[in-house]
Design a protein that fits this description.
The protein has helices at 2-27, 106-109, 180-186, 196-217, and strands at residues 35-36, 42-44, 54-59, 65-74, 82-89, 97-105, 114-122, 129-136, 143-149, 158-160, 163-165, 167-169, 171-174. By secondary structure, it is an alpha+beta fold. The protein folds into 2 domains: 2-30 and 179-217; 35-174, Jelly Rolls, CATH 2.60.120. Strands 1, 2, 4, 7, 9, 12 and 13 form a 7-stranded antiparallel beta sheet that branches. Strands 6-5-8-3-10-11 form a 6-stranded antiparallel beta sheet. The longest helix is centred in the first third of the chain and has 26 residues, at 2-27.
Length: 223
């Protein structure tokens, strides 16, 4: 009899493993936010000055954009002046608009290896194109940026004085994100498709029924 139960027990083990994998997958964020990590071909840019400004373009993938991290580096000179950070909406060609902006002392930008440009959340930022500009509001020195050569982030590029370079700044965007499970649960009903919570409950019921069937075939004794 033990041999007859080996297949159901194996199936039950596979069922449990698949459930764990599915739970982990559903717990991950449903949206991947724009970012570019420092890669192997990393480099430090020349310092930001009144005659040399930098920018990074990106396409946002969620509402509520509320901060952007940029990797910074000292240029070897004393940190003086202010750095101007501007978030510009470029979605509509020929109709750019400054969404958020701030002037930050150079010394504050260099306080840590990464500086967070924090601002009031942009409510409808999903599926919008942006350009983060980094410039000097007055004669400034000391601030350089960290970037990586190549096209690691395919939806944007590094710009120097408005000219596109084959590189990206090291940056990371921040916005509220929900897990795939939450997004599925909140999915509204559509024509021919029930609301998400109904689909979730039906899936869970079938999953539990499959477990009960496998346990029954295995004899109910898994010791």
């Amino acid at each position: 009899m033990s041999g007859d139960r080996s297949a159901p027990r194996l199936a039950l083990a596979v069922w449990a493993a698949a459930g764990l994998v599915a739970a982990l997958a559903l717990s991950r964020p449903a949206r991947v936010l724009p970012e570019r990590e420092l890669g192997l071909r990393r480099f430090a840019t020349p310092e930001v000055t009144s005659a040399r400004h930098f920018a990074q373009t990106f396409d946002m993938t969620a509402n509520g954009l509320e901060a952007i991290d940029i990797e910074t580096a000292g240029s070897g000179t004393a940190a003086t002046g202010d750095i101007q950070l501007s978030l510009i909406d470029t979605t509509v060609s020929g109709s750019e608009s400054i969404v958020r902006a701030a002037a930050v002392p150079s010394a504050q930008v260099l306080r840590e290896s990464s500086f967070r440009f924090q601002f009031a959340p942009v409510a409808n930022s999903d599926r919008r194109a942006y350009r983060l500009e980094i410039a000097a509001t007055q004669p400034a020195s000391g601030v350089a940026l960290r970037a990586t050569k190549g096209d690691g982030y395919s939806r944007g590029s590094l710009l120097v004085n408005g000219r596109t370079r084959w590189a990206d700044l090291a940056f990371r965007t921040h916005a509220p994100t929900h897990s795939r499970w939450t997004m599925l649960w909140r999915r509204p009903s559509e024509a021919g498709r029930p609301p998400g919570w109904v689909a979730v409950m039906a899936f869970m019921a079938s999953w539990i029924a499959a477990a009960a069937l496998l346990r029954s075939l295995a004899g109910g004794d898994l010791a």
